[in-house]
Amino acid sequence: MRRSISLTAIILAASLAASPAIPQAAPADIEKTFDASISSPEMDGWMKRMAAEPNHVGSKHDKANAEYTLQRFKDWGWDAKIETFKVLYPTPTKVSLDLLGKQRFKATLTEKPVPGDATSSRTKDQLPAYVAFQGDGDVTAPIVYVNYGMPDDYKALQRMGVDVKGKIVIARYGQGWRGLKPQLAQEAGAVGCIIYSDPRDDGYSADDAYPKGAARPAQGFQRGSVAAMPLYPGDPLTPGYGATDDAKRLTREEAPTILKIPVLPVSYGDAQKFLGALEGRVVPANWRGGLPITYHVGGTDAAKAHIVVKSEWSLKPAYNVVATMKGSEFPDQWILRGNHHDGWVFGASDPISGHIAMMAEAKAIGELAKSGWKPKRTLVYLSWDAEEPMLLGSTEWAETHEKELKEKALIYINSDGNGRGFFGAEGSHSLQNWVAKVAADVTDPQTGVSVDKRARAAAMANTGTTDRAKAVAKAAAEGKDLPLDPLGSGSDYSAFLQHLGLAALNVGYGGEGDSGGVYHSAYDTYEHHSKFVDPGFKYAAALAKTSGRMVLRLSETALPVQRYGDFADTVSTYLDEVMKLADGKRETQTAQAKAITADAFKLSDDPTLTSGLPTALMPVPYFNFSPLQNAVVRLKASAKAYDETLKSKGAALPAATKGQLVALAGKTEQALLMEPGLPGGRGWYRNMIYAPGRLTGYGAKTLPGVREAIEDERWDDVDTYSVLTAKALNNYSDKLDEGVKLMGGPAATATPGAAAK
Amino acid sequence: MRRSISLTAIILAASLAASPAIPQAAPADIEKTFDASISSPEMDGWMKRMAAEPNHVGSKHDKANAEYTLQRFKDWGWDAKIETFKVLYPTPTKVSLDLLGKQRFKATLTEKPVPGDATSSRTKDQLPAYVAFQGDGDVTAPIVYVNYGMPDDYKALQRMGVDVKGKIVIARYGQGWRGLKPQLAQEAGAVGCIIYSDPRDDGYSADDAYPKGAARPAQGFQRGSVAAMPLYPGDPLTPGYGATDDAKRLTREEAPTILKIPVLPVSYGDAQKFLGALEGRVVPANWRGGLPITYHVGGTDAAKAHIVVKSEWSLKPAYNVVATMKGSEFPDQWILRGNHHDGWVFGASDPISGHIAMMAEAKAIGELAKSGWKPKRTLVYLSWDAEEPMLLGSTEWAETHEKELKEKALIYINSDGNGRGFFGAEGSHSLQNWVAKVAADVTDPQTGVSVDKRARAAAMANTGTTDRAKAVAKAAAEGKDLPLDPLGSGSDYSAFLQHLGLAALNVGYGGEGDSGGVYHSAYDTYEHHSKFVDPGFKYAAALAKTSGRMVLRLSETALPVQRYGDFADTVSTYLDEVMKLADGKRETQTAQAKAITADAFKLSDDPTLTSGLPTALMPVPYFNFSPLQNAVVRLKASAKAYDETLKSKGAALPAATKGQLVALAGKTEQALLMEPGLPGGRGWYRNMIYAPGRLTGYGAKTLPGVREAIEDERWDDVDTYSVLTAKALNNYSDKLDEGVKLMGGPAATATPGAAAK
Questions:
Q1: Among A466, A611, B240, B491, which is disulfide-ready with B416 (CB 3.0 to 4.6 Å)?
Q2: What is the pLDDT of residues B700-722, one digit of tens each?
Q3: Longest dimension (CA), chain B
Q4: Residue A482 Cα to chain centre, angstroms
Q5: Facing A204 at nearest CB: one of B294, B460, B607
């Protein structure tokens, strides 16, 4: 569902560091055999087949792909089955969009076949221009251009004196998750929403348009889900529990994640007609796109839109393929590995490019098993359905099996779209060092160095200007592990990490050759993928070798792979950020108050243009961060004690104790869950460290209870969630202390002064 | 010649601060009478007449405008004359540009008349597409797109593995002075240069194109000078001395400021054909313009250009109008006020909009004089010719009269293009507080508050993200004077400030309604100006009232208007910047060296694309900044002693001493001159504090001898110019100490520890 890992994600990748001498399983022979089974031509063939026809939820080919995957898993020696859920999935029955006013135009809403791409001519069964879980409707209103439709854009609109109440907004894709655009428009009183792909962002400005290059052609549009994921993902009718046949369901009207206003995605070919017809103020510089027009904000009767969207709202089957290989020593310690199989149209890059890597792993592991090897722990390979409409397959499965998973699952490893380029990984920071070591053992297909070394090279060569980019470059230069990025949302790890509290990773390659311009369009085809995204399927092989290695090493390890000091240091950084955020907001508010007193906004506005005053910011009080500060001090001490004890005593422990330690490490992340979860109807998100942002969507917010309370001016929640988050961290420290005790190490001593610096 | 003051310049404007109780001339009645004489309709009429026909150097109408101005000055009671210089000024006799290769196209190089703009149809006598002081030539070569053609762009080209040797470059206007683009291309081995105006920068992306809006239409192009101004401005054949009839002249071949390669400016209508034909790598994101194409770097035979430029290189007359009104008390203390009268085509905004304000001042002062008032000091009003080809009129005049000017002139006050918006001022920082006070007494035509208050409002409302913008916003919020920006080059103040060492100011209004899109084109007409740039000529009146007030106050003041603490504080900031620059460069070099050692550039390059390694930076030694540090400590102490003594004892001094003090203040800035001036053939620039940047052109470099030595990796020059610049500052302190002595105040005591904090 998310765009494949981009060049920005590169420098978040993991890396090789000075390895501590913790004894690890050393399955070098196994890995060699495993690697030898990974075949690029075979993956090519799987993609060709699976991406041959539209494979969205409810389509014939989606079901066929599930059955094909099932059969392969079985062939390869796995205990496999299909677990079906009944989920709400609206399919559009009527969509139309017209420009009315001084100029008139009927949007084509059609993705014509592209020369040289046979798949793109397979228009039968394709979904039309459409986003899932918008509200049915038939509305006509003046159009307002809202840039990316993000909160700052609404502030700028206010300064331009433009109100979207009763209007239809047109927003461009990018800068924030798609679903926030209609959500924020709806909250501001808009009656409809058009979302278009500006050529500046992923069209001809970014690269030559398909078929000459990889970028979006003029008629291409981006489908997607607009269900209110910041509330909860999964079936809108069954929040927090599985959408089984007999589940009690909300009515459609009760479901808070379904939008009320109609929304349509359009191509830039269509959008140019709408944007070109707008009058009103010329937009600010950072609102300008790449179309050869002057962008105006609109809002007048000169240009109106007429949107009609009607869907069929029945329940549809979601086919999850679940393949298990039982562990020989620790059958109740599970390693979960997943990738979805449903796409928006043909879904070659998203998701089949990741799915074929997962299949290659399963096949190679099956071959190992056939040769007599058995995994020590239980492996569970998961081919999800209905990820695209909002992680339905994985969420319903995780909710259904919550109890068992919290008892047995050690980790969830995810992948999704994959392509040529740089290794990128996001996830639980206790795994940062381990991920770096895995990446150091995988060879980059283009350069012959390890994928870790290449990611590190990119970080050093492309030093950006953000604090984050600088930190990553610094880590690379100093030979430290490259920091993992935190997980937000946008693929199937969400329920595991944020609802169940499992350790989770999302891994993949990307950043070269592909501008993301066919994302969720009918041009995401085998032809496009094999020409531009991963020629020769070399990075499909690299992904299989990376995530396969992770699965094998976790299966075979005697001792925990975690290094908790990384988690402690990372959380400490997040706390610094949150405290700086409060200080920065206080400064901003003070400056704005002075400007308001000085009448500065009114006096500096151009009196010949429409304008409006900004909303006064709330004064920012000083907060009690001491619970968090103390919890971080303790966490650092406990992590240090754990890591050192594991290093000094781990190898000599009895086998049973080692097994207990691994199980404990699997459960430790669950300590981060805290009831009642996040506020504002977002209680499904229970992880106090990682969450998708309320106003960023896919983008992660760390320490979300505290950070978003500051951002949203909910001052009481700052203190409430400082306490709750500190409690989560203390619970985590308790688990670490339990581990130290199990190993017979000395108890941790937290010295605030020493650890705080 | 420079674009009118933009919104970014606003927040550099001066402001009202807590006024110290230094007694000033209080010519309130005079100013009231003066203001009453300023007539917007009259200025409207002058512009209509002066901008009716092409008025570039050598044109009939340019001469007519000089004579018209002369006659008006005389009518208004001034002692006026025309001083003529004979300057080299090439006029094009043949220009052509063709696209060759897979696609073929002949550039139109023509600015067709625009509907509703009668002036634009007056095509007779217009100069064609052309830039002055390029090299004649007839070349054909593959085209390379070089973005803005600035040094960083050449570094990016190197990383893309593209060489411009033997090629023709196409660069877009912006991000640096025009003349640097062909200069850097020539240095890199290019054989020709095309400069175009990208719609993203001042065309339809910025605003509706003319005539619907103010922005550049598809066929509009920007003329201008490409003489190597960083070496010296003025007539290329008479560096450092006046281009009088009998002056000894360099040959054209000897003149170092004349380019060798042919250069042509083109419209974006024409440029799209050339850029659209390029092959090679897709350009980096910050190289993308606003044309609806994918920008490629080119460099292959697929797209070649054929440029022909031939000029007629005879000497032409430059007609400076010099109008004097003798001072009644201090006839040998001169106040200079200038604005040029030559344009590139009709020159309505540039320069007539500023020229009519200067005329209105001269008329109003003439009327004051007719009523019996006489200025105490001598006023010299200067209507320059030949500013556009590179400040020829003002430079030759300043060089010719160097000796007398250094003896008598107290200040040079400049204006140029002017429009609706915000007050902006740049110049000598000893005048910062005084400029703020003047601006506090001029009323903004649109809001009714002072122009100072409105500029302050803009600074508070539009807080930017640069260090500079933050500092300006902070000053505004704290009620301090808004900082003046330093002067670089681009208008007629250059010779006075940087060659003669006079205090100088450049003042004007702008930032609303105009995107600069007709700058130096045939659409800079009366129609465009009166519709978009300054409707009702209200800001022409505001400028006349601002600069007129400056002239009157300086004429009448009993005591110096300077506050030297502002200069000392500003120089201290510049020293901090320079020291940080060295540290930053050291860090960058260290990081790059590590990346090179780790093979990071090669490993992270996309192996399917052309690429090249960066040039290794030179290790940065530690420098001896102590001469500068000590000089700044002393400067602060001397300035403090001067300002305090003036405040406590100034009013009670004998009239003759007061007059001596003003004369001394006029000479104090000359202490900043230091032989041999800047290195690298730039000795014409002798001011150790302010210079146009070698690689920025118009943009100022402060402490240029030191700062540019660090930037250019000339390590020996860093120490040499630290000593020279410190000496200039010490000479300046000597002058201040001399003033204190004259006032009978206590000598300054510099306490390094105290002042350094």
A1: B491
A2: 999 999 999 999 999 999 999 99
A3: 81
A4: 19
A5: B294
pLDDT for the residue A684: 98
Q: What is the 3-state secondary structure (H, E, C) of B363-384?
A: HHHHHHHHCCCCCCEEEEEEEE
Helices B451-461 and B467-477 meet at what angle, rounded to 10?
Answer: 120
Confidence at residue A463, expressed as pLDDT on a 0 to 100 scale: 74
Hunting for tokens 């990128």 — which residue is that? A424
Mutate to test the interface with B, among A294, A297, A420, A472 (most CBs of B within 10 A): A294
- Does the pLDDT at position A681 exceed 80? yes
Nearest CA among B336, B328, B318 for reference residue B401: B336
Per cent of chain A over pLDDT 70 is 95
Q: Which amino acid is at A52?
A: A
Residues from chain A that touch B459, judged by Cβ atoms under 8 A, are 600
Report how far apart, in Å, the C-alpha atoms of B166 and of each of B136, B147, B169, B179 are: 16, 18, 10, 19
For range A652-671, the mean pLDDT: 97
**Predicted pLDDT of residue B745:** 87
**pLDDT range class, residue B751, cuts 50, 70, 90:** low
d(CA B513, CA B734): 47
Residue among B207, B208, B600 whose CB faces A461 most closely? B600
SS3 A383: strand
Q: Please check the confidence at residue B8 and state whether its pLDDT lies above 50.
A: no
Determine, for residues B288 and A594 on separate chains, whether the beta-carbon distance falls below 8 Å. no
Residue to mutate among A278, A603, A609, A613, with most B CBs inside 10 A, is: A603
How close is the nearest chain A Cα to the Cα of B282, in Å?
Answer: 6
Find where tokens 């942002």 sit. A693
* CB contact at 8 A, B34 and B41: no
Distance from CA of B599 to the nearest CA of A (A): 7
Of B294, B457, B601, the CB nearest to A208: B294
- Whether B600 sits inside 8 A of A456 (CB atoms) is yes
| A81 sits in which H/E element | strand A79-88
Tell me the CA end-to-end span of chain B in Å, nearest whole number: 41
Contacts 24+ apart (CB under 8 A), A119-123: A119/A51, A119/A52, A119/A346, A119/A348, A119/A525, A119/A526, A119/A527, A120/A522, A120/A523, A120/A525, A120/A527, A122/A52, A122/A53, A122/A54, A122/A346, A123/A522
pLDDT in tens, A130-148: 999 999 999 999 999 999 9
Contacts of B463 in chain A (CB under 8 A): 591
Contact A447, A461 (CB under 8 A): no
Distance from CA of B206 to the nearest CA of A (A): 7
Which chain A residues are closer than 8 Å to B601 by Cβ?
457, 461
| Domain architecture of chain B: domains with CATH | 7-89+316-557 (3.40.630.10), 91-312 (3.50.30.30), 565-756 (1.20.930.40)
Reported as a single tens digit per residue, the pLDDT across B129-174 is 999 999 999 999 999 999 999 999 999 999 999 999 999 999 999 9
Question: Which residues of chain B does A598 touch, with a Cβ-Cβ cutoff of 8 Å?
Answer: 456-457, 460, 477
Quickly state the pLDDT bin for B752 (edges 50, 70, 90).
Answer: low
pLDDT band at B466 (very low <50, low <70, confident <90, very high): confident
Cβ pairs bridging A and B (under 8 Å): 138
Nearest chain B alpha carbon to A449: B603
User: CA A631 to CA A571: how far, in whole Å?
Assistant: 10
Which positions in chain B touch A294 (Cβ < 8 Å)?
204-209, 213, 215
Q: CB under 8 Å to A591, separation ≥6 — which residues?
A: B460, B463, B473, B477
pTM: 0.95
Q: pLDDT tens digits for B200-216?
A: 999 999 999 999 999 99
CA-based nearest distance B487→chain A, Å: 25
pLDDT, position A381: 98
